[in-house]
């Protein structure tokens, strides 16, 4: 989309610009809120990233346990279908608590896995 702007001689000219240029005009890089937003760690990760947080032994224990716990198996299937896990959601925390209660994970490992 052409934009109207002025050249070095103050003549009006049409110029082609990228959308990213439009965005940068409205963003103040010194904004404290923007800096805080950029420094935040992601709390939603892909299922593959979530799965990679488990050791092989933990993953095997998890798979063995969910075969005896249909609600947990459905939770894993939902995460796989959605291809995302919100590390801070109530459902994810409940899932991990269930694994701790079943001695699949220790509380320390659960906390480490849920660290953004």
Describe the protein.
Helix content is 56%, strand content 12%. The chain has 116 residues and is an alpha+beta fold. It has 2 domains: 2-39, no CATH class; 44-113. The strands form 2 sheets. The chain has a two-stranded antiparallel ribbon with strand order 1-2. It has a two-stranded antiparallel sheet with strand order 3-4. The chain is elongated and about 75 Å long. The protein starts with a strand and ends with a helix.
Q: Keywords for this structure?
A:
two-stranded antiparallel sheet, alpha+beta, 2 domains, two-stranded antiparallel ribbon, 12% strand, 116 residues, single chain
In a few lines, what is going on in this structure?
The protein is built from seven helices and four strands, in the order ββααβαααβαα.
